[in-house]
Amino acid sequence: MTHVMTTPPTIMLDVREVRKQFGGFVAVNSVSLSLAAGERRALIGPNGAGKTTLFNLLSGRLAPDEGDVLYKGTSILKVSPSEICKRGMARTFQITNVFVKLSVIQNVQTALYAHRRRSHWLLRNAAAVLRDEAYALLDMVGIRALAERQAGLLSYGDQKRLELAMVMALEPQLLLLDEPTAGVELNTRRELVALIKDLCTRKQLSLLFCEHDMDAVFSIADQITVLHQGQILAEGTPGEISSNPKVREIYLGSEHGRVA
Fold this sequence. Notes:
By secondary structure, the chain is of the alpha/beta class.
């Protein structure tokens, strides 16, 4: 009998007993989770469960009171958000974070300049610099035809696409997406879900995302972590989570696509 040796998956993100308290309120209480290379994990839970606080801890915007966060095996507790991003962990926010007065392509060029530490290029030859790369990123998210339009005039769904293009300009290995389908209508939501899955597959990205839309969660995620009152209530595959009685009672409605 032949034994096939398998290599254990690389752990991209390792969160160890992280805790964060604001006054007398414990927002995140001894949370531990890990994310393997190429894994797509959803973080779900009711409003106030601690999801955004945890994202802020992971991306360096907040420092935990206790615990540690390791990215690719190295602690990032004392690393600035910009340096964390430079190392390959990029984040989007629940509310789109684009430069509304700039054109669509200028937004992507700005992200490219910043990633390559060439922000002074904005002062000269800005229109020509990295234009081809910016167009390629807009192609990737399906809005090349809107390149010259002012970003603030885009539909909210197209602003979400633009934000994804800007994040991809940072050449991430791990994406943190905060409510990637929030605020958009059903058809656009489905298109965004398909786009996120395609980007992760095409670029071999690891993904951790918060999302309230359960259809999006169950479509994208390999694994799901459920937060409740700052603690992990359950973890598992979409099938395991959808059938978990505690999760159904606290968070899921009678069908997985509806939040109670």
